[in-house]
Amino acid sequence: MKKSILLFFGTLLTFLIFDRIVTMVISNAEKKIYIESSIGKVNQFIKVKDSVDVLVLGSSRALHHVDTRNFGKAAFNIGADGKKVAYCAALSSMLQKEGQIVLVHVDHNRVFDKDYDGRDGRGLLYKAESNENLSEFYKAKFPTEYFISKGVHSYPYNGKALIILKNFMVKDSVNQSGYEPIFPTEVQKAVFANMFKEEKSQMNIGITKPLSISNEFEKYVDYIQETAVANGSKLVFFTSPSLSKVDGEVHDKVGKFFENRGILYLDHLDYFENQDLTLWKDYTHLSAKGANLYTGFLLAQLAEHGVLSYPAH
Predict the structure, then answer these.
(1) InterPro entries per the record (predicted)?
(2) Eight-class DSSP state of 98
C-alpha cells in the first residue's frame, strides 16, 4: 500500500513538472507567432487593440467583408473562421481603450440557434493567464475549463500545440488591417455559377419556427454591451450581405431584439439587390470586389447614424 501511494504521488509529481515545462515551451513559442493564422491574428489583436479606434469582430463574414483599410482611422479586423458571439465576447473582455467603435458581425440564424452552447468562446483560454480581464471572463463563463487550466497548465493548448510548433519559425506577419479579401479562382467561379443555377431555395437556412432567441446568444450579447458601456465605446451589431435570405418575420425579430437593448443594429443582408456573381465567392461570402462595395456602404451607414465623425470614403 505504501509503495502504491509513493508511486501515485511520484507519477503525479512527474506529470506536473512535465506539464509546466511543456506549457512554458509552447507558451513562449506562441507569443512569437504573427503569421496569418488564428494564433498570429490574436497576437496582432492584442498588440493593437488599445491603439486602434475601430475593431471588427465576428466570423469569416466579418473577416472577408469589411475592409478596415478604408476606415480613415486606425482599424483592425479580428474576424475569424467559424467564430460566433461567445468568441467575440471573450475578445471584448480584453478591450480597455475608451471611446472605440466596436463592430460585431452576426448572422440571423445564430440569433435563434437553440443548440448553440458558446463553446467557440473557449478558444482564447490559452491567453487567460496573461490577461486579468480575460481570466475573469473564463472564471465566470467557463468555470470548469478555467479551473482545469489552473491545475493542468497545458490544457488550454489542447489542439493548438502542433500548430504553434509548425508556425513558430515562419517569419511572415499578419497584415496591419486584419482584413482578408477573397479572390475566387476561375474554377471556383465556374463551380459557384453552376451551384447557383441549380439551387432551389436559400430562405431561412438553419432557422426553425416559432422563432425563439437563443439564451446563450442573448447572454453573450449582453456581456459585449456591458464591456462597451464600461469603456464608453460605440457598439454596433451588423449583418453583411448574403445570397442566403430570411423572411420579414426573421428580420423584424432580430431588429427588435437589438432595439430593446438600445443597441444599433444594421441589417444589410439584402444590400446587393442584383445577382452579379462577380461580387461573390459563394452564397455567404463576398469576393474582394463585393467587399469593397459593401465596405463603402457600411461606412456611409455608420456616418449616417453618427457612429463615425468623419466622412466615409
Answers:
(1) SGNH_hydro_sf (IPR036514)
(2) T
Which pLDDT value is given to residue 165?
65
C-alpha cell at 202: 436559400
Residue 131 to residue 93: CA distance in whole angstroms: 9
Phi, psi values for residue 102, rounded to 5°: -115, 115
Residue with cell 466579418: 62
Residue length of the chain = 313
* Residue carrying C-alpha cell 458581425: 105
Whole-angstrom distance, CA of residue 161 vs CA of residue 176: 25
Give pTM, 2 decimals.
0.90
Fold classification of 2-304 is Rossmann fold (3.40.50)
Alpha helices in the chain (DSSP H): 2-30, 38-48, 60-63, 85-92, 108-111, 132-141, 143-151, 161-167, 186-198, 215-231, 248-260, 288-304
Can you give the pLDDT at residue 313?
Answer: 47
| Grid coordinates belonging to 275 | 445577382
Phi–psi pair at 189, nearest 5 degrees: -60, -45
Over residues 145-167, the pLDDT tens digits come to 998 888 887 777 777 766 776 66
Q: What is the pLDDT of residue 22?
A: 59
121: nearest Cα among 88, 158, 157 = 88
Neighbours of 174 (CB within 10 A): 21
Which of 43-47, 148-152, 258-262 is the most confident on average?
Answer: 258-262
Cell numbers for 246: 430570411
CB atoms within 10 A of CB 109: 18
CA distances to 86, 116, 283 from 208, rounded to whole Å, are 22, 14, 20
Can you tell me the distance from the alpha carbon of 235 to that of 219, in angstroms, rounded to the nearest whole number? 16
